[in-house]
């Protein structure tokens, strides 16, 4: 649903209000649950968008825009809305055979609410014939509430399955003294803030146009990270699952402040000996010594005597506020007229992309599993922003009064790409941690052809592109180490490395009706070919993205028809036919064959296959490996 109201109180002022609501519900196809489809969770989204825009023309050369907007989006994924619904069944029914689920249910229960409040202000001033100034600000405030649970049995002491979630909002975790964290729940509320401002001067001369600009970006994650009282990060014990106390050189626990100087073993006051006077010169902050939360009453000798123990200053985690990110980004563009009907242009710019919020907030409770590589990758609130430096040069040439041709050559360096590293806790458990260390680059050439003649239009675009980087996805380094594979030490094709893309659109459009046909051809993107081998060591040095999927093509058709009913009331009929020829493009392929719906099946595989309801071919013939089949959409737009 969409509604829009526009007002023109007087000639220089325009205002409009808009409201849009979208509701979606779906159950994605799972080949594993092909024979147990009712065990799949259902995804849902509901979004409400409100906006108010004001445009005021100060005079003939000066105007400004103000836009206020709010969007609330609720995403959920669960089988039943109430997590304690009695229709959840025991995990003992979650059996499988021949690669298919024969029972059981998805036990995930996620609800994520995101609210974005946005204020934009833009100001434009045509100073004179040579200079046009644009400036503005953009303020964005996020609020993310995440409630992600795995449904468990409330007790295993009986034979009755009672669905249960470990939630801070429920009575069983109401006490402030309880540790409400659980490996089966992740609850948090985060409120990051973004701000940007820009200034641009467009200079127009007889044969040349120059754009000079400067942009300032600011991002405050407004969340904490795992640190210690020494001001260091402490991701070796991020959730204080491990407790360490100070001991002296003999391994005995320190129970008094005076003993700390002995443990320190440093002549802090430089008097030639280590004594009680050194305690006031201890290099750690007084906060650590003076605050009782760093003490615990413990009968550590198990003799009935309760002593005060000092938590280890570097191994004990305290929350520390993440620092904001900011950057100044210059922009430069030049267009030079070559002759009467050709324009040469060049651009250079720095672009600042905020870290994705999932990479900062994941595993916010900072709980680590008890086995290596079993934890979810932990978010890092101290991530740097991704930085891209772009260069582009191009030529636009008018061929005749109907046709034009444009050629662009571009290159991009991408720094601080999101990556992962492996961290080892104090008790030698390895887990993944988001960080910045990867690099990528993109280079290519783009050709554009355009023809316009009355209602007829033709647009054609061809791109030749190469993308390279040292990691295909953020989790690559973590996954390879967990699989005992060597790190990638050279640039490899990225997952979006598509050598050739070609599309052309033919349109016939009038004020009353119109129709367009668009054809697409795309060469295949990379995948990791894994040859069949009896030696498991063969995969250790296998580089990711070492082969390419098959090419794909499709044709779409869309059109409209305007109907005027009376006076200011009219409507528009629209239609869209996606994949008009019902082409089956292979978007996902088998790693051993490079094709969809195929696999290498040995005689041994066939002998060992056991099933009374399906075949071995069914286990790998996954229809979701292909593109969406022909889809027809029809719409009606009312204009009052």
Number of separate helices: 5
Q: Which strand-content bin applies to the residues? A: over 45%
Overall structural class, as computed from helix and strand content, comes to mainly beta
Arithmetic mean of pLDDT: 87
The rounded distance between the terminal residues' Cα atoms is 15 Å
**Main sheet: strands, sense, barrel:** 21 strands, antiparallel
| Total strand segments | 31
Oligomer: single chain
Low-confidence stretches: none
Shape: globular
Q: Whole-number radius of gyration?
A: 31 Å
Helix % is under 10%
In short:
By secondary structure, this protein is mainly beta. The chain has five helices and 31 strands.
Features:
640 residues; mainly beta; 21-stranded antiparallel sheet; two-stranded antiparallel ribbon; 48% strand; globular; transmembrane
Outline the structure in words.
This protein is mostly beta strands. Among the domains are: 1-184, no CATH class; 257-310, no CATH class; 553-640, no CATH class. The chain has five helices and 31 strands. The strands form six sheets. The protein has a 21-stranded antiparallel sheet that branches. The longest helix has 8 residues, at 257-264. The model has no long low-confidence stretch (mean pLDDT 87).
